């Protein structure tokens, strides 16, 4: 299984969610997307977007300065 990585550091909402949506649309079924960001509100917004649209949130890491969320299509 390949894991695609999307770096949204330096972006504020709604851009991280919009970029995550586009990346997930292009991702093959069953693959995973790792989103890395530094805008805290985006973490919850991306998580909510993924769950609302039927994607599986595999893991969330929050190191304080940055976050990493892994989503499976």
UniProtKB/TrEMBL annotation:
Domain UPF0033: 6-30
InterPro entries referenced in this protein's UniProt entry, alphabetically: TusA-like, TusA-like_sf
Pfam families in the record: TusA
Signal peptide: none
Origin: domain of life: Archaea
Protein name: tRNA 2-thiouridine synthesizing protein A
Protein source organism: Methanofervidicoccus abyssi
């Amino acid at each position: 299984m390949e894991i695609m990585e999307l770096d949204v550091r330096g972006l504020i909402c709604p851009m991280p969610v919009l970029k995550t949506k586009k990346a997930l649309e292009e991702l093959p079924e069953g693959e995973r997307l790792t989103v890395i960001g530094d805008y805290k509100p985006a973490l919850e917004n991306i998580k909510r977007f993924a769950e609302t649209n039927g994607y599986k949130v595999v893991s969330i890491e929050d190191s304080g300065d940055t976050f990493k969320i892994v989503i499976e299509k």
